[in-house]
Amino acid sequence: GGGLSAAFAEHLAVIDLPQPENLILISPWLDVSMSGDYDEVEVDPMLGVDGLREMGETWAAELDSKDYKVSPLFGEVENLPKTTLFVGTHEIFYPDVVKFYNKLKDNGVDAELNVGEEMTHVYAIYPLVSESKEAFKHIVEVILD
Q1: Which of 27, 90, 107, 118 has the most crowded CB, counting CB atoms within 10 A?
Q2: CA 108 – CA 122 distance, rounded (Å)
Q3: Which of 33, 20, 137 minimizes the C-alpha distance to 86?
Q4: Minimal CA–CA distance to 142: which of 23, 47, 52?
């Protein structure tokens, strides 16, 4: 859902429609082509590169897997709203989320990266995990601010 949300916001900018006030992305899949270097990810108990590449091809359908509509990492980001990202260091998307965050910052977007050390995919919504409780509290603060 996070990657889809980012792609939708990028598309809103392309067709010159208003952006949401905040974009909150939890473990977004930002490169469905899986073209990055994922060797730095120690372990991801939930997701693997090969399976994701296959799913990415299916998701992209007739689009190139690097089209921003399915892989927002490759889109134009300068018109995105304030963006808050959550990602765990033990998930395959970690390197791409860091790249996306850097791209946002380089393009003047108000962006914040929240990294869950040794956390896995979508840790921010796990029940009964202290890191997720902190992430949820922060999400509420961003929305209410």
Answers
A1: 27
A2: 26
A3: 137
A4: 23
End-to-end CA distance of the chain: 23
Rounded CA gap, 48 and 41, in Å? Answer: 11
Q: Residues 32, 72: contact at Cβ < 8 Å? A: no
Architecture of the domain delimited by 2-144: 3-Layer(aba) Sandwich (3.40)
40-96 pLDDT, tens digit per residue, is 777 888 888 889 999 999 999 999 999 999 999 999 999 999 999 999 999 999 999
Cα–Cα distance between 3 and 30 in angstroms, integer? 5
Burial of 29 (0-12, 13-18, 19+ CB in 10 A): buried
Q: What is the pTM of this model?
A: 0.94
CA separation, residue 43 to residues 17, 63, 117, 145 (Å): 39, 30, 12, 35
Return the residue matching tokens 């730095």. Answer: 40
